[in-house]
Amino acid sequence: MPEQRSIKVLNARDIPITAVTVYTDRAEVTRNFKVNLAPGLNEIQLENIAQYVQQDSVKVDVHGNATIHEVKFERKFINSEIETLPKVKELKEELKKLEGEVQKERDLQSVYTARIETLNNLVGQGFSEEKGHHPVLSFDDTFVSSLNKFFEFHEEKSVDTKAKARISEENIASLTAEINRVKNEINQQHYSRESKQ
């Protein structure tokens, strides 16, 4: 006759944390719980452990007359049923839209950076020799007028482009905060759905 197997499922979120030790690169979280074991083989499943866990760091100890045969860590992804909930679908669409807007702002920033570099390069090239004539040697009213127009153009375009780049940076910061809010709301939907099950 096969040995009777008892399965107990526990939710890690329901087990109080008894100790936390924080290191520079990780944290050690201790949760203690008691389980009454039936005679024979017992399987204890602990669900909803933290998202980021080093698999080899999970340790199990027992006290009393019991033997641990195996400790196994598995990642099982959330039921796809949660992904099809209208609220989660709506949030994921919003997240995709926000991420697209962030990419658009980053593309704009690279354009602004290229413009500023080009303007600065023009300033450097403005004093290079052209057609064998050094600009200082042909320093007349026409040259001064052209030089003033050039510097006014450079100033106007540089200031305008840098202002646009700053606005773009602010937009990215705002969109990133909104992305984090939406991700947290999606996680909250997952959590509230799991806790109802």
From TrEMBL:
Domain of life: Eukaryota
Domain DUF4140 per the UniProt entry, residue ranges: 20-119
Coiled coil: none
InterPro entries linked: CHP02231 (IPR011935), DUF4140 (IPR025554)
Protein name: DUF4140 domain-containing protein
Protein's organism: Panagrolaimus davidi
